[in-house]
Fold each of these.
Amino acid sequence: MRRATCSRRPAGRSCPRIDGTLLTHTGLFVTNMGLGSDMYRQQILDHYKNPRNYGELEDPDFTHVGENPSCGDTIQMQVALDDAGETIKAVRFTGDGCAISMASASMLSERLHGMSIEELDALDTDDITEMLGVDISPMRVKCAVLGRQVAQDGSKIHRDELDPDDRTKTEE
Amino acid sequence: MAGKIHRVTSGRKYYNRPTRLSNRLTVRTTIYIRIRLPDTGNTYRTEGVLVLGTQIRVMGVQEQYPFDVEAVRADFPILDRLVGGDPESPGEGPGDDTPLVYLDSAATSQTPDPVVDTIVDYYRGYNANVHRGIHQLSQEASVAYEEAHDTVADFIGASGREEIVFTKNTTEAMNLVAYAWGLEELGPGDNVVLSQMEHHASLVTWQQIGKRTGADVRFIEVTDEGRLDMEHAAELIDDDTQMVSVVHVSNTLGTINPISELADLAHDHDAYVFADGAQSVPTRPVDVDDLGVDFLAFSGHKMCGPTGIGALYGREEILDEVQPYLYGGDMIRRVSFTDSTWEDLPWKFEAGTPSIAQGIAFAAAIEYLEEIGMQNVQAHEDLLAEYAYDELTDLGGVEIYGPPGNDRGGLVAFNVEGVHAHDLSSILNDYGVAIRAGDHCTQPLHDELGVAASARASFYLYNTVEEIDALVEAVGEARDLFA
């Protein structure tokens, strides 16, 4: 075995190797928190386990669903606007998917409250990353931005700026 | 026999009756113990007596361990690399310090040095087009490329190169038969029988050919234990069945399907049998006569070879009758403005300049595997699959799909309660553990299982028990993180 560390013991412990040498343990699984684990900081896990604004509105101005078929992540966003139709009054979402997509939709639902339609249109990937407060690995960006895309596309369909038959997805 | 016990690798669940020897409770069982002798470096497998609460006593070396895994690993330098961490600062910076644990060989296997060397030798020494030059380089390349077909034929017990068509991969081999044979021969009233555990390579291909020809496409159901319902198979396969196309080893469930039994059923009704060997040919001895198949497809990149090369085996008398699927250079004998005649088998199915380096390296990969022995590769895979199955089961909160650990191919697909497969894979990646997460190109099967995705760890000849320990540890961390 050429693994430099052994994962089974806490840091500082030593264990004999087959070649007669001793290996000092680094506590690999405690100290080595790189990108992947970093993505799952407490805030993300909290929103995943306790999603905010989860459910359906009684009288939404628009409802839109998006799906990333290869992941199976599905999100429905419902938005109610003020009387002028310019400001977001209430948001509810439902969905099924990974922690990143669900936490992102949950956090977005809070952020959208009181936001104007123009501001919703202007939300980009950086805004979502900033909102999440963690680095998202390139392969997972599609998960993080699905909720935003659903809200934006739903709003555009509501304004007749997008064909309702165009399906919303954020993966290639 | 002096030696240090490396570790017990399997067997602890398969106790025979406990008996009392002296004052300790002992259990005699066949436990696989890997012993490495310092002088020769050889590893051995043996039987031992497990004395509960103490250590294992080795009763004596019975047989040599299939092969020296450490020596094999030395042929795969990629297994030494470190992964994880910050993409902004590649290298051995913070985070990039995790040894790679590669458990995704069912997607693509790693490539040993002798195979890489074969590719380099070709491009440096005799790179030339095949079948169309008199000069020495073309002759050398042609001979090596043609002989690669012989090597593949021998490997699976085919009668010769006439029965081996090189393709891009398993998928292309499926499509070759579906287009060249299926579109011509199938029609309304005919049916093609598949299984519910087909890879999309076979499922989508026959589904679409069915739509175009009007042939019915039927699916043998999968039992709760992840096996084919053979009674259902016997109901589905009838006199209108023209083709039975079934995966040999499931890439999701790990199920080893009874291909020869299906072949008997099919042949009773004069139907052909096509086995998808993408997961079986790389991992166990496969003989087309033993299986009784008419067609077999497999990919080089899942068996230590390069990407871009795979093979279709077809019985010569069938391939003789089937018209070419691709037209062009290299596959013709005589061409006029109005007509053409075809080259002999297998070349009539290999139009255009083929993947020459890849074909030659495919043969090198097979020679590499044969040196280890496919029986030994299978024995090692069996051991790892069983160990992984047991350890993941013991961990708790893990749902594993497919048959039990002692009766499956070298892969384990699973889900952890409360953790999406993509989240699991992201977290495992941080621990250097590379697994596949998704639908593994078996979406309808996942629909049947009632899950959108699963995580899959798959093993090959270079994997170790310690790597499975790392997998299980990381899965446990992920489970706890989400608890």
Amino acid sequence: MSSIDWKSYTPTLIPNIKDYHKIDVYEKHGGYGALKKILKDPSAHTPESVTNAVKDSGLRGRGGAGFNTGLKWSFMPKPDGGPRYIAANGDESEPGTFKDRVIFEYNPHTFIEGSIIAAYAMSVSTVYVYIRGEYRSWIRMMEKAVSDAYEKGYLGKNILGSTFSVDMIVHSGAGAYICGEESSLMESLEGKRGYPRVKPPFPAQKGLWGRPTTINNIESLANVPLIMNKGSEWFKNIGASTHPGPLLYGISGHVNRPGVYEYPTGMLISELINDVALGVRGGKKVKAVIPGGSSTPPLRGDSLEGVRMDSDSLREAGSMLGTAGMCILDEDTDMVDFLWRVSHFYHHESCGQCTPCREGTGWLEKTLLKIKNGEGTTRDLDLLLDICGQMEGRTICALADAAAWPVRYTINRFRDEFEARVKNTVYALA
Amino acid sequence: MEKFEFTKEELAVIDEIIAKYPNPQPAVMPVLWMAQDKFGHVEPDVQKLVANTLGLPESHVHGVATFYTQYYKERKGKYVLDVCTSFSCQACGAYDTLHYIEDKLGIKAGDTTEDGMFSIQSVECLGACGYAPMMQITNDIYVNHLTKEKIDTVIEDLKKDKLPEFEPIPLVQNREIAQEK
Ligand SMILES: Cc1cc2nc3c(=O)[nH]c(=O)nc-3n(C[C@H](O)[C@H](O)[C@H](O)COP(=O)(O)O)c2cc1C
Ligand code: SF4
Ligand code: FES
């Protein structure tokens, strides 16, 4: 039974309005109203009060880690007159994730307005929007939207006649998953290879060009105008109480109607599969669900009852919400093949700085390929788990963990399938 | 030998790019993109041009160019077909799609046809997982929901230098908001 009234839910992030991506249409429907309200009466809407409103709304980052957005903003130090930055993360490269692109195409101005409000709240002087290079068509759309926002005076000097100024610059990546990791993204923006930085110092202390910086996902920032317009209470009451708000669910894999859907957080996975995505193709059974991008541990199809798409429910079930990019795999899926392909990805994308990650991702892929080709032994399964143990928590960034988790949990949860593919190891008697 | 140069107009654009950042170094990625759009690749001589234009060491530009997969460090076909084979697409038959294209063009992923028209690459998730199988053409247009017929048409069209049209992201949640572009 669902406690969430999703059938009567009206989309707000990607509303049902034709040509909403055009600035005139956006304005006609109240767009940039939240920004106007704030800038018209800054004494009633101080940066602190805006930050608190976002904090109180319970909005948690949509980029994967699920950290409270307002709380993150409050980590920025007091302004000292020097430049401060927001890096909006539109790298969207975690396999299975395809939702920020919908914002670029259908509602860029909500994101832009949210970023301007965030910049106001954190006294930021420039917002860099980092978009993966493959999204060239959508980079063009964002550039158009940004230039329209400048033309209308929402960006630039003395916005809407106020004392607040902020610039927004769209920056294209060039094909590197690791640049979605926040410190790698900053390195990339500085014109270098995207090698993640050792933390601390954290970006709020020492970010872009050594200055205070906050990194937020595109969808996280797009929620901000909604919170300002409708209030923190409104937001808090949507979906799961500890992880509230509208959420863009990306559903892919073996379903009848894949795509990006906007619904409250905390939807039942079973409802998303059966009612939203119209069930599994060919009426087949679900073998596995990857709930939020390739790094989130797969859940068995027979363990989905009552599991919801929010961080608490998924933690209990043994996975994570991640990016809410769900992939549904049917009963015919070869889990060995699947896992080899996931491992190939992380091996390909490891930046190579840390030995456990560089070597570990290589060994994972190599060993899985061996098993896939029918040349593995039962010992290889234990070897894989052992490699995972040597990678987790031992590296500069979380890519190594992201590579290890799917291996560990796919083997644990589908061990029979892996055992069926390997030769029994004959141990010599000592 | 081919000479790589930026025109006066392009140099003016580069100055505008540099102005977006606190120093010239961050312009390296946008300018590598400009160079690749113009010359079709960023071979070492092009990297040198970018380095000289921005006043950066060649070694730095080389480091950046080689870190990011979308920069072509060697010449590719006129049209590069990037087929996503990451797991969502894999689940939806991406390898069959890839093999169909390979057979059709008579080359393997990673190679270029002899006439220099096509390269094929097997690439990681392109952020279009719900519209699998899919591919991207030369770092630009996305083509979703590939079928054999659709691939045939796209390739025939490309041979005549006709690029597929932009496909808006399909919104499936009871939406009637198709938009003008
Ligand atoms: C390897 C790796 C890749 C990541 N890729 C992305 C990404 O593509 N997009 C994104 O928003 N966050 C990504 N993240 C998370 C970011 O580091 C960061 O937590 C996030 O952008 C913060 O925004 P949020 O708090 O609004 O979610 C990635 C993290 C890691 C470790
Ligand atoms: S964990 Fe992997 S990707 Fe992250 S910094 Fe180390 S080597 Fe690079
Ligand atoms: S897995 Fe192919 S586009 Fe995401």
Amino acid sequence: MRALVVRQVGPGVAVQDLGRPGFLAKGLTQGGAADTRAVHEGAALLRQSPNCAVLEMVGTGGTFDATEDIRIALTGAVMTAQIDGDAVAWNASHLVPKGAALVIGPTRSGTYGYLHVGGGFATAPLLGSRATHQSCGLGALVSAGEALPVATDKGRDTGMTLSPEPRLTGGTVRIVPSMQTEDFDPAIRALFEATEFRRDPRANRQGIRMDSDSQGFTNPKALSIVSEVIVPGDIQITGDGTPFVLMAESQTTGGYPRIGTVLPCDLPRVAQAPAGAAIRFEFLSLADGAAVQARADAELRKLPQTVTPLVRDPAQMQDLLSYQLVGGMISATDAPLDEG
Amino acid sequence: MTQTDFAPKIRSVGLNGVLVTFGDKATDTANRAAIAFRGAVDAAGWAEVQESSSTLVSAFFRIDLATHGFDTIRDRLAEVLSAQDWTTAQLPEGRALWTIPAAFGGARAPQLGEAAEAAGMDEALALADLTSARLRVLTLGFAPGQPYLGTLGQAWDIPRQVGLTPNVPAGALVAAVRQVCLFAKDTPTGWRHVGQSAFACFRPNSTTPFPLAPGDEVQFAPVSEAELARIEANNSDGSGGADRVLIT
């Protein structure tokens, strides 16, 4: 079997894809990767469909080897990575020869790192998706000793890279008004926009708590509402006035009012912000938000065109001394420097 | 029960879709309108609608509002809204009536007495209420396939208890705010545990992973603890001895 064998693995590694749409009416949320942009980036690097399943890794990855030569790509939160002891670049594709040790982690920047394989992981789909949704009993975390099946790979290229949209350190997140925004006083909305938040360490795939020095954003009018539909990116204000950004695995409905909704294209920025990172929310009108999102969607479709050969720029090497600079210059026509 | 002063509202939900709301309180009338309206729009098969759902009082249509302008969608939905009085509309066809065996009170559902007291009746009367009503699946949520059933009479407008019961098992019938919820999995809850079934609301490996649908009706058939144990012993498919017939 063509597979990636798991020798060691961190506690937060799971197979994900773009999720399991179509079951909202049944109370099952879409789920899928926390940073869907990273899923598209990996697919662009390997020149394959963004529907291919990937490994999502939090904190650290693990040690893997392959039963055949496989191509990989690494995207999202930057983690350390070595193939048979040689450091390899993040946001790039590489060849992992049969039997070679692929070691990933720990995280250097961001929260969710992704390991993509040529052909995608071929674990058994459940309800039309390979996305792990632990709290609903759909799939389980990856454990040591597992052999993760990998589908046939039609591609050949490795040693490719792209420049990811910067999103690993928090920053400004654009939001649009949502169904209950007007239940909040204009003064509370203005305070919300003016407040610098910090991502709380209490965060998971359901939601991310936002801390601040403000008194909270409770609004009496919004306290007793009927439980209503939740979409990813909704910012709910709990009873004590604390905002939570609801993420891929939130419930389908909830009884706390939503002050606004993060644009889908800015949700990866929220997902990737490390604990303590500063985040501000900026309201756009629905029309402006739609225009920004439409441009982002168009850029995502063009992502494969931004992929370029990986050229080793000494200025960008994170640990210059670990590279054999002279050895890499033996021949101008040598194979691309992607496999070390 | 009825709420005649509420004009339906059409609102955007982020850039993810459009919500049509039929009440600002969880009434049976608003829920019925939401289910009927969702059914009618679904039947029209709009290309923009990626999927739909209904909550307690609203119908939700997942539509990419970065591609399809909200104003156009809102106007089209408003046209459907004004076509008829949705509070009296027929519910969609293809709904099912479920008869689900459950044990009430005793060791398996220890809060029947407490709930009855909160509702101002004795246990026998509470049992009669809970098993004679044909309850509608108001919405599915909180956990996959998990139904909120309603609507019980005014006496059952009992609040959630102050503290949480740490772990009420899957298949439990819990009551609060004129509703009964049938738990899809073990759950901490402030609702009172009045009955216990062996019905699995989410069967991920089955051909019918979500047996219930909003608009379905449910009636509970009281069984003894011994009978429930017998059902549980032969329940590999999760059906819990339930019976399903089509209403329409």
Amino acid sequence: MKNNSSRNKILNRVKKSLNIQSTSITNNPEIDINIDQELKKITPSGKELLIEQFRDEVEKVSGEFIFVPTLLEASKPIVDIFNSEGVLEIATTAESECIEIAKYISQKFSKIKFFSTADYTEDNRKIKFTDINTSIVNASYAIADIGSVVFCYDKTLTSYPHFLSDHVIVLVNENDVVANQFELFTKLDMETAKNMVIVAGPSRTADIEKVLVLGAHGPRKLTVILYRGKN
Amino acid sequence: MELSPKEIKSKVKSAIKDDSLRKAVYNATVSTGVTRERIISEIPYWEKLRSKAHLIKKETIDNLDKYLELFEKKCIENKINVHWAVDSKEARDIILKIAKEKEVTRIVKSKSLTTEEINLNDELVNSGIETLETDLGEYIIQLKKQAPSHLIIPALHLSKEDVGKLFEEKLNIEYTSDPKKLLKVAREKLREKFLIADMSVTGANFGIAESGAFCIIENEANAHLSISLPKIHVALMGIEKMIPDIKALPYFLKLLAPSATGQKSSTYVNLVGGPSREKYNEGPEEVHIILLDNGRSKILEDQDLRETLYCIRCGACLNACPVYQEIGGHAYNWVYMGPIGITLIPQYLGEIEGKHAPYLSSLCGACYEVCPVKINLPEHILKLREKVVEKGASNIFEKTGMKIWSFAAQRTKIYRFLSWFPTKIQKLLPNGKSFPAPGYYKERILPEFDSKGFRKRFYELERSSKNEK
């Protein structure tokens, strides 16, 4: 097989070349570098300060941050967004938090229709969800020091509402906020970490004369609603 | 691409004379440098991060065979099809074969320098497959039929007016130079293409050996749409992009975004660990990864230059380089440019073919200062110059010049005379006229010689310091 011979050829060349010991020119005296102490120094101590940092960083990456005491109370700012944007169709994932919010809002506002990815399969999901401008999704984690939200596909089972809508509203449980990416990757098991995305704000580009424009190919707006979780 | 010294010289000369190009390149590189500085000032452990990333890369590259085999094994477990390509042609053939077997007619691509390296687009288009770049900068230069001029900002050399005119001509829209309106046009055109594409081709920033997954970092979400909408996803990755495991990834994430774009974090960090359709009922049915050698295993042979394979393609060295700031990316005439480019060109293409490259540097060391993985670029550039000379590839003027210098340097009186003579000649030249030295034009004037000379100045200093004591 041609490809197999290429595999062996490349690996043999690599092995042959590696027989020569490398010398790293860089003067690097610290062989065992540990940044834990430095990270600790700049990580806010306590949940409240961590959330404050998360809020600041979300805003720095052009996201909007809203804090609510409970998950169901997230419905109020969400309905305000719907009213101000004239939204009647909402995309959601099939995660329990999204279902709960959708159910609650639908009971009060019958005009607003929710569309869950679970009700659509393969190609018709792609078509349907590209037409819906607003979505509500749930973050698997949030990262305080970079104002990011994390979506693990093993939990979300989709990424269409996260990327195809113009305005993405992300629900974040305060217990899922981690300090930084180092902490995130110690929390995630290897299997979950294989299929995921870390998102910092709405999509953007500065490809024309370095002028920053939000809403490149993905969401134009990202609203993070953080709610108090049950301990 | 033509890499003859004549071609390169003429490109460099015309770049230096193009004021609007120089202004665009200078503004973009300097502003990125400033935002980079601001962001890293908020990361007090930046230097430790650089050292750690350097060590992780050293460990991976020094054991690359083991990590490649582990990556392959884990990818297969994750149902990712693994292909190996010795050179550009083989990589193109693999992609074309996949496309033909699946009767692909439309491909969306997300920004990938490696696909530029193998010159993929022409091959696909010549085979009748519609191939569209989806990163805004890449889309612009594809419409303009140009190559990228920067590793991260491909259309850095174009002004918003240039882009406005291009869109007016190619996309039949009313002229506008407003980046927001231009982006809106591109977004609408491309969204449609994402939805109907049969296959996507992307690069990959990191291959995670222990997970059998790979990472794609971006800001526009075009890479995400490319990997989640078409039924087939093909990723092309150089064999040097390995990292050992997922715990190593945050070091590189922390370094890459500030170095590349002056952001604390890139907007999207995508991790791909297999076809998602079976698991999540959407996205690709097939994921392929092509591991490209194309000269990389040869680079490993040199125990010092091996370090150039640590590069994470952030472009920080380009932004810091005074030569790149003056000539932009096209003058290098190859896919990789700037300080990292000039080390890779002779290594990939051979010291004879790429002999001009190591000389496109002032050896000021700014590239080493900013490199997030501490590649000692000035050392490598010097070593490559040595290799060019050893191969006998330096030009006749350089050879003769060095012989004359060597002769004079061994004879004090002659050397003194040769150091003194130009200072006298210079005084005879009309005001503002540059001393006639190779490489110096009206845009780049040779500074005035010091009429005292080093020896006189040294003795004066010595005397004054003695007097002070």
